[in-house]
Amino acid sequence: MESAAIHSAKHILFIIGVILFAGSVSGILARKFKVPDVVVFLLVGMGLGPELSGVFDVKADSTINQLILIFGSSYILFDGGASLRLKVLKEVWITILVISTIGVLITTAITSLAALQLLGIPLITALLLGSTVASTDPATLVPVFKQVRIKDRVAQTVMSESAFNDAMGAIVTFTIMGVALGTGGEFSLASATATLLSNALIGVLIGAVLGYLAAALIAHEKYNFLQEYAPLVTLMAVLGAYMSAENFQASGFMAVFVFGIILGNKDVFGFAMENREEEKLEDFILTTSLIMRMFIFILLGSQVNFVLMGKYLFGGVGLVLVLMFIARPVTVFCCALPDRRAKWSLNEMLFMSWTRETGVIPGALAGILLGMKVPGAEIIASATFITILITIIVQATTTRWLAGKLGLLLD
């Protein structure tokens, strides 16, 4: 007779096998129809979940789901950071800083007002909903820009924003939640600003230190004794960067993103790897990121609650339309237009206005609110999942088409 532990292990292995098989088939279909693979992963996950076929049922608050969500998002974020170039970021850093901070507040304000009118919910619930969906999602955007090659500074601005604004979105959400639950006292702008700066600076510092150390150990002329183990170094360092930042009450996602930037730009610091070792590392990162995308988005799709979504469907869809066609364009133009150094063109700003998929981070925040039984959490979770589905399915699939129409697509 099997023990509970063995039965549980077999069940987890079954889930892993199903996701790997379904993900492989989905990847082939995505390439055939020339759409971002995250879209197909999400749809396949919905079909495999308990609401439809019931092949497997992984709860959002389960340990395995949280493990995949945290590590998978961290590794995808590291991959996104490694693909950025410091030379390009120097041109657009002002826009990235403003849109990742003030931009989140603008999006929160406009979306909250829309939720107030369309869903008829209390102000505090509307503010919570607005802040939950205000941040964009690196786990979605990084893979999309890996598959759709567009003008460097546009792609790197959108990817960097998605990495940095999750910290701001979480801070705003938890501050409002404290007020809603009566545990946070009155809102303090000074305290919130200090928390944001602390989160950002500590995360950047930890990511930079570990990124430099990893680059030295795998590419230094003298001390590169871990060059053959470069893939393992990236795994250890991603985990180390995330956990170190979290232990210091900073943003783990920001730390792994900065770690990726430093490692991806190691040549700037005088480090260089042999071509064979460099290719081996790039292949490992590419494969690992693909597997993480499979698990994150298939699991995310399987957790969609159709009954809950149907309850607030019309108001939720209206809210998404406001977010896509009003809140996002206003945010982009208010934050990018004043940056005279970057000199953004109209086409570039129009593209950034459309590219703002919602995904893993907002979904996780909605789950936290549900778990803490915050007033109105059910409505927030429903509207958040509607936002995730519509933005990923509609915006991710039209990214290539829009970039071509606006003259931003690279050969």
Structural class: mainly alpha
SSE run = HHHHHHHHHHHHHHHHH
Proportion of residues in β-strands: under 5%
Low-confidence stretches: none
At the first level of CATH, the class is Mainly Alpha
Beta strands, count: 0
Number of domains: 1
Protein model, in words:
The chain is globular and about 65 Å long. The relative contact order is 0.16. It has a single domain (7-405), classed as Na+/H+ antiporter like fold, CATH 1.20.1530.20. The longest helix is centred in the N-terminal third of the chain and has 33 residues, at 86-118. It is built from 17 helices and no strands. It is mainly alpha-helical and 411 residues long. The model has no long low-confidence stretch (mean pLDDT 86).
Could you outline the blueprint of secondary structure elements for this entry?
Layout: H1 4-33, H2 37-48, H3 63-82, H4 86-118, H5 123-132, H6 138-147, H7 152-181, H8 189-219, H9 230-247, H10 252-264, H11 275-302, H12 306-311, H13 313-336, H14 346-354, H15 360-371, H16 377-396, H17 399-405
Helix pairs in contact: 1-2, 1-11, 2-11, 3-6, 3-9, 3-10, 3-11, 4-5, 4-7, 4-13, 5-7, 5-16, 6-7, 7-8, 7-15, 8-9, 8-10, 9-10, 13-14, 13-16, 15-16
List its traits.
mainly alpha; Na+/H+ antiporter like fold
